[in-house]
Amino acid sequence: MKTEFLLVGQGLCGTWLSYFLEQEKREFLMLDPGNLPNASKQAGGLINPITGRRLVKTWLIDELMPFAQQQYRQLEQFLLSRSTKPVDNLFEERSIVQFFSHADSRSIFEKRATEQNDYLVLPQEELPEAKAFDRLYGYGIIQKSYQVRPDLLLASYKKHLSLSGRLLESKFEYDQLVTLSKGGRYQDIEFDCLIFCDGIGTHNNPLFDHLPIAPVKGEALIVQAPELPTSHVFKGPLTMIPLGHSGYWWVGSSYEWAFSDPYPSTGFRTSVEQTLNKWLQLPFTVTDHWAAIRPGSKERRPFVGMLEKNPAIGILGGMGTKGCSLAPYFAHQLVQHLLYRTPLCSEADLNRFKIN
């Protein structure tokens, strides 16, 4: 079997990379085990233009946001044309109601709102939805934010890959990889380029052990709160993201650099339930508890590109918690780089790290 590109891992990075290769009419195969935990599937899917306690713009957001808007909508239409699009929207605008935990956080928001009024606004009148919460020190609105449904997107795209004969459900075995003078071979597959998009799998990949990969554990609860309007994302002591219009909400998330296992913890569930009972003034029921390991980077920048000493092998990963905005942008950039030699972003280029 011969292919131009062999991709490993059908998370957000692998999905977007295969999509852009298909748009360029290139041959590829996707290798994915299909039954392992995937942080992309369990992500809240929020694209937030503002980050941190100081409420600064997210890295590259003025470029990322319009690109994401265009590409997610095009991907929806692409899947619809192949009858693999789910009923719920994969991508929609959803402003964030940001509750202030203390007077200082309100002051910071008010100051930033005068500097970044394209994203931050103080409501002129009370939002009815905010009455469902203990409003603490008041709230502001982060607008022009978007919600992606990674679980639906990945399932729909997996169906498309399967129907088109491009999906191989198998775990990648490093000892079966043979590099050649041009390209390489994996089992019975000959390829020109091999690109790893397997998220946390990169942590154990001997080809990339020189990268500052930082696995991060995240947990979230899925709760049913049928009386809570799904018009906004609500962010305070927790973040609540609606899962469509079903009355179910993603509630989280933790961010653990040090952890002993990848499983849901009793401590997280207890803490979140106690906090939610105080903050949310409506009844809710916990229906599920998720945990996953995110593929982060110690410098919080992605890994994009091909190995300098072996240009047939590359990586697209290290997106951390911002995969929904970063993955389409850098997947497109990598495809353009491979096909047309356009430059990669210097802050994300894999070869900023040299192999000793």
Q: What does this entry look like structurally?
A:
Strand 17 and strand 18 (248-252) form a beta hairpin. Strands 1, 2, 11, 12, 13, 14, 20 and 21 form an eight-stranded mixed sheet that branches. This protein has an eight-stranded mixed sheet with strand order 8-9-7-16-17-18-15-19, sandwiched between helices. The two termini are 34 Å apart. It has a domain at 2-42 and 151-213 and 299-352: 3-Layer(bba) Sandwich (FAD/NAD(P)-binding domain), CATH 3.50.50. The mean pLDDT is 91. It is globular. The protein has six helices and 21 strands. 40% of the residues are buried. The chain has helices at residues 12-23, 61-81, 103-115, 150-163, 266-279, 323-340, and strands at 2-8, 28-31, 46-47, 50-51, 56-57, 91-93, 96-99, 120-121, 139-142, 146-148, 167-168, 177-179, 184-186, 189-196, 213-224, 233-235, 239-242, 248-252, 285-297, 303-306, 313-317. By secondary structure, it is an alpha+beta fold.
